């Protein structure tokens, strides 16, 4: 293929960035997080209770862990990994409309979690690689706004459905249809993207990955991030429903969360031009910790709204800073190290719902509050660690990778 033929075949930079954004909107915003705004409706219909919701959520996080661990082992190119995962996401989201026992929904969410992890790793690899070849510094950060965009779209769909009195089953089918519509332009771009295949699973690569400066410290902080944010990310609409009965009001918590997450990535991209990634990551953990703590000490419509702003406005910033930091330090084996970070994140997410479920059995009135306080404490500790690491120059300076 000549250079001119390749130029005609390759999609423009804006198409690459938009496809990555929509890919994350489908995989994460809908496939990964749609259960959060759906849970209050399923509770209202008596399909599940809060404890069962915790187990279903934990199954999704376990699937996410499996997907993160297996993504680099498939040997597939990032484009193929993402395409297969996104198609599975549409199917599994629609299957949630089929009634069944809690175990059935847990199985679907487990498989959906695995598909989400594949899509996140695959999209991060193919899209960031393609954008780096174009020396792009805008879309490589903006594409992570897709997660918040998908969350906002799913939340608005559930808000409209809840206000209209639609059944949970009908809403699951509508969410699957929305995911399918968003997927179409992604597949059109993926057909034209030329990316390298996944890296060989050689011992040398594994040894090199293990020598990343501060690698395990970063993975640990990312795992704590998963543990700290997941409880409000799972139960925020449920907590809102406990203080505001009007679905048109309590249903706003999740769209606000998503819109704030989308906007925050655009703001963070500008901030990262002047401030180090570790500093941005540390501040994100501190602010997120405040948002996680608030509903446990002051439960009201205002505290829920402020929590949605603080957590929604920082969780994608922490993702952006963490992923870029690891890519800068593990340029020789970025897919493997990104999968390792995603695995740590998934492990933290599993611990969160399991802890809340256990505490709810021990102390039904305060179990969720105690879990939120534990999550906030862990975020404050890692914020201090990251900030201290910068001040002590624990990590050598690495050029910014966007």
TrEMBL record:
<dbReference type="GO" id="GO:0005886">
    <property type="term" value="C:plasma membrane"/>
</dbReference>
<dbReference type="Pfam" id="PF06779">
    <property type="entry name" value="MFS_4"/>
</dbReference>
<dbReference type="InterPro" id="IPR010645">
    <property type="entry name" value="MFS_4"/>
</dbReference>
<keyword id="KW-0812">Transmembrane</keyword>
<keyword id="KW-0472">Membrane</keyword>
<dbReference type="InterPro" id="IPR036259">
    <property type="entry name" value="MFS_trans_sf"/>
</dbReference>
<feature type="transmembrane region" description="Helical">
    <location>
        <begin position="81"/>
        <end position="104"/>
    </location>
</feature>
<feature type="transmembrane region" description="Helical">
    <location>
        <begin position="50"/>
        <end position="69"/>
    </location>
</feature>
<feature type="transmembrane region" description="Helical">
    <location>
        <begin position="110"/>
        <end position="131"/>
    </location>
</feature>
<feature type="transmembrane region" description="Helical">
    <location>
        <begin position="370"/>
        <end position="387"/>
    </location>
</feature>
<protein>
    <submittedName>
        <fullName>YbfB/YjiJ family MFS transporter</fullName>
    </submittedName>
</protein>
<feature type="transmembrane region" description="Helical">
    <location>
        <begin position="279"/>
        <end position="298"/>
    </location>
</feature>
<feature type="transmembrane region" description="Helical">
    <location>
        <begin position="344"/>
        <end position="364"/>
    </location>
</feature>
<feature type="transmembrane region" description="Helical">
    <location>
        <begin position="252"/>
        <end position="272"/>
    </location>
</feature>
<feature type="transmembrane region" description="Helical">
    <location>
        <begin position="170"/>
        <end position="190"/>
    </location>
</feature>
<keyword id="KW-1133">Transmembrane helix</keyword>
<feature type="transmembrane region" description="Helical">
    <location>
        <begin position="304"/>
        <end position="323"/>
    </location>
</feature>
<feature type="transmembrane region" description="Helical">
    <location>
        <begin position="12"/>
        <end position="30"/>
    </location>
</feature>
<feature type="transmembrane region" description="Helical">
    <location>
        <begin position="143"/>
        <end position="164"/>
    </location>
</feature>
<feature type="transmembrane region" description="Helical">
    <location>
        <begin position="216"/>
        <end position="240"/>
    </location>
</feature>
């Amino acid at each position: 293929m000549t250079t001119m033929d390749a130029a005609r075949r390759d999609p423009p930079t804006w198409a690459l960035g938009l496809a990555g954004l929509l890919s994350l909107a489908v995989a994460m915003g809908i496939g990964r997080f749609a259960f959060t705004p759906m849970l209050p409706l399923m509770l209202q219909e008596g399909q599940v209770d809060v404890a069962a919701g915790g187990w279903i959520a934990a199954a999704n996080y376990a699937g996410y862990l499996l997907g993160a661990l297996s993504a680099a082992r498939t040997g597939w190119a990032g484009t193929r990994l993402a395409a297969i995962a996104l198609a599975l996401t549409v199917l599994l989201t629609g299957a949630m409309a089929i009634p069944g026992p809690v175990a059935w929904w847990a199985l679907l969410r487990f498989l959906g979690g695995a598909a989400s992890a594949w899509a996140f790793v695959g999209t991060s690899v193919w899209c960031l690689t393609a954008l780096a070849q174009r020396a792009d510094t805008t879309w490589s950060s903006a594409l992570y706004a897709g997660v918040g965009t998908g969350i906002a779209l799913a939340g608005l769909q559930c808000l409209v459905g809840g206000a209209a009195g639609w059944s949970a089953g009908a809403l699951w089918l509508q969410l699957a249809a929305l995911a399918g519509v968003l997927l179409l332009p992604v597949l059109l771009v993926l057909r034209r993207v030329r990316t390298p295949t996944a890296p060989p699973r050689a011992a040398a690569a594994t040894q090199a990955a293990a020598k990343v400066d501060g690698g395990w410290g970063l993975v640990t902080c990312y795992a704590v991030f998963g543990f700290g944010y997941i409880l409000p990310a799972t139960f925020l609409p449920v907590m809102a429903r406990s203080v505001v009965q009007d679905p048109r009001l309590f249903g706003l918590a999740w769209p606000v969360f998503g819109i704030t997450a989308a906007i925050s990535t655009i703001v963070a991209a500008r901030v990262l031009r002047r401030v180090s990634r570790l500093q941005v990551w540390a501040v994100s953990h501190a602010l997120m910790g405040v948002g996680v703590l608030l509903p446990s000490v002051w439960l009201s419509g205002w505290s829920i709204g402020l929590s949605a702003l603080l957590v929604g406005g920082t969780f994608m910033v922490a993702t952006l800073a963490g992923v870029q930091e690891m890519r800068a330090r593990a340029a020789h084996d970025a897919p493997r190290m990104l999968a390792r970070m995603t695995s740590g994140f998934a492990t933290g997410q599993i611990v969160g719902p399991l802890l809340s479920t256990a505490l709810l059995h021990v102390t039904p009135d305060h179990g969720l509050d105690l879990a939120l306080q534990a999550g906030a404490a862990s975020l404050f500790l890692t914020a201090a660690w990251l900030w201290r690491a910068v001040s002590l120059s624990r990590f050598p300076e690495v050029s910014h990778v966007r």
